[in-house]
Amino acid sequence: MSRRRILLQGSVGLAGLGTAFSAGTIQANSPKLATQEIAQATLRGRYSNKVVLITGATSGIGMVTAKEFALEGAKVFFCGRRENLGAKVEAEIRNTGGEATYMRADVRKSEDIKAFVDACVAKYGRLDIAFNNAGVDFPPHPIAETPIAEFDDLMNTNARGVFLGMKYEIPYLIKGGGGTIINTASIGGHHAFSNIVGYGASKAAIIHMTKTAAQEYTLQNIRINAIAPGAIDTAMLERVQRDWKVTKEQLVAPYPIKRTGKPQEVAAVVLWLASPEASYVSGMRFDIDGGGLG
Q: Does residue 293 belong to any structural domain of this protein?
């Protein structure tokens, strides 16, 4: 395999860095879905009175998904480490008539995530949907040249962050009678790419944790799924292009669709997974990559 091919494959995997609701009183994974309630879920405002918690929503996929949930009537409680961006996103949602609250939290720290989840329930009274989306990337390195600190930060942010989120979200979902969790993985979590061992390992861990958690809690009316984005048009993708020294055209060359994805296209999948229409879906990984690994 040529060096160019290896670089392009790796950049496609790293690009994935860019990478839950019920209508009325019915739970999202109830086996008895009312036709009327499913129909209502297709209307704007389908998440009215639902509480959605999102990590990593100060930019990119998380930010767009937070705005989409708010447009659908949800109360959105979100975190990120960049306070200036958090305040900006909260103001933008509120200025469009939505309800959102930003709280600074570092998903690497158990005390931060526990306080974040507790604060969400204290403010809005319950938790219905959790989107564990926070993640980081680093420039590419072969394994022997990968800095240990970078590997540790990838695992602590991407994998441990999702574990901590589920650990503190699940008890509230059980208390409320059920709900849904969506975790952000990546196509790099199930397809090996050169030079991103820490990133790929962290995303593979998310996929495994998602499947394990679904087996443990689906009978308690909690559906848990993962999304695996490919090359999504975000600021993180721009960093990938700079780090790998590739153009956007080169980046999407392996994709049959021949373009990058939009954050809105990822958000649409998240909102569907959180809805009653996905009531029989749990423990699954959804690739959002334009057929790139098809």
A: no
Q: What is the pLDDT of residue 240?
A: 82
* Annotation says 217 is catalytic: no
What CA–CA distance (Å, rounded) separates 225 from 175?
20
DSSP string, 85-134: HHHHHHHHHHHTT-EEEEEE--TT-HHHHHHHHHHHHHHHS---EEEE--
Lowest mean pLDDT across 22-36, 63-77, 144-158, 215-229: 22-36
Task: Indicate the number of domains in the chain.
Answer: 1
Q: What is the distance, to the nearest Å, from the Cα of residue 168 to the centroid of all Cα atoms in its chain? A: 16
Burial class (CB in 10 A: 0-12, 13-18, 19+), 71: middle
CATH code where residue 280 lies: 3.40.50.720
DSSP-derived letter for residue 160 is I
Question: Exactly one of 102, 199, 217, 255 is catalytic; which is it?
Answer: 199
In this predicted structure, which of 189-203, 206-220, 230-244 has the lowest mean pLDDT? 230-244
Between CA 119 and CA 77 the distance in angstroms is: 9
**Which positions ≥6 away from 133 have C-beta within 8 Å?**
54, 55, 56, 57, 61, 62, 65, 183, 184
Looking up tokens 């993708």 gives: 237
Task: Using the structure block, give the residue that is written with the tokens 């503190």.
Answer: 168
